Amino acid sequence: MSPSKGEATTIEVDGHEVRISSPSKVVFPEAGITKLDLVQYYLAVADGALRGAGGRPMVLKRFVKGIGAEAFFQKRVPENHPDFVDTATLHYARGTSAEEAVIRNRAALAWVVNLGCLDLNPHPVRAEDLEHPDELRVDLDPMPGVEWAQIVDVAMVAREVLEDHGLVGWPKTSGSRGLHINVRIEPRWDYREVRLAAETLAREVANRAPGMASAQWWKEERGESVFVDFNQNAKDRTVASAYSVRPLPDARVSTPLDWGEVRGSHPERFTVATVLQRFAERGDAASGIDDAAGSLDGLLRLAEELGPAEKPPPAKDGSGRRSSTMPLIEVARTKTKPEAMEALERWKAKHPDVVERLHPADVLVDGMRGSSSLWYRIRVNLQHVPEAERPEQGALEEDYDPWAGKTWDR
After folding, report:
1. 204 pLDDT exceeds 90?
2. Domain named DNA ligase D polymerase: which ranges (predicted)?
3. pTM for the complete prediction?
4. Alpha-helical regions (H) of 230-368
5. 353 domain-assigned
6. What angle is formed at CA 268 by the lines to CA 267 and CA 272, rounded to 5 degrees?
7. Is residue 405 a part of any domain in this protein?
C-alpha cells in the first residue's frame, strides 16, 4: 500500500533525530524492501559503510523516482542539511566548485539514505586534504560475455602486481557484475600522479594477462576481456563504496571480501538480506584497510620503465579527434537504458544476418554522464561481419538530445 504524501517518521540515531519521509515506500519491490528497511540496513552495517565513505566528500546519487528510473547526481549539499552533516568545498578541473556532503556518523548516514541515495559515492580524498587522494581504486569491469572465473583470474593478477609494488589490495564485489579492489595509499600524491599509477597498474595487469585483461580505454578495442578501469582515479570521479546497495531488483550490495573467498563469491550472493546476516556474524572484511596505507613509488617507477601509453590514431578529417580502428555504427541515443535496449532490438530485427555474426562484446552500451544524470548510446562493432555485408550508418533508431533545452552560462 502506498504511503500518504505527508507520511513521515522520526528516528533517534546516537542522540540525533533524523526525519524519514515516506518510510513505508517500497524501494525494492522484488525484495520487499521499504525505505525504512534501507535506513535500518545502513545503520546495521554503519561501521563498514563509514569506513568506506566516512570523512569524504560525496556526490548524492538520488533515486527519487525509484530504481526503475534514472538517478540524478547532486553535488551540492542541500542548504537545509542538519548540523551533524559536515561539508567540504571541492574545486573541479573545469573551474567550477561545489560544497558537498561529508558524512562522519550514523545519523548522517541515515540522512543521506532518506534523500533517496541507495549507494554511497565518495571521492577518494579526505575532507581535510582535498588534493591528495588516500585511496587508489581498481575497477575490474567485464565486457559482455566474460564469466566470473575470468574476472577472478584478473583480480588475482592485479593483487600480484600490487604486492610486487608494495601495496595491499582489498577486494569487494562491485554490486553489479565486476569486482573492485581498494588500495589505501599515503596522501602524498596529487590526482594526476594517482591516475598515472592506476593506469600503470592496468597496463601491467594487461601485460601479465593478455587476452584476459585490457587497459584499452576505447571499449570497442577490448574484446571479451576485463577492463582495468584506471580512469576511476581521475579527479571528479566517484565509485560506489563498501556496503552500498545497488539499484538492481534483488537489492545487491557491494560487499568487501577476504581474498580466500573471492573465487566463490558471485555478486548475486550478496544482497541486503544476506549481507545483514554476514555482517552480524563476522563484521567487516575490510576492517584493517586503514592500517595498510602504502606508497605509490613502486608503480610510478614502473610508469617510467613502461613509458607513455600508446595513443589512438587521430581522425583523418584533421579535427584532431581520436579515430577508432574498428568498424563502428551508432544505433541509438536515448534518455534511459530500457529505451536504449528497445531501440537495439528494433535494429536487430532489421539486420538478422548481421546479428548472427556478432559476438557479445560487439554490442556496446555506453552510459554517458550528463550534467546531473546519465543518458545512453548504443553502438555496434562490425569487426566480425564481412566487409561486404556490413550495413551502412543509417538514421538512429532513437535520437535523444541530452543538451536540448539546456541554458549555458555563456
Report:
1. yes
2. 34-285
3. 0.83
4. 272-282, 297-306, 337-350, 352-355
5. yes
6. 100
7. no
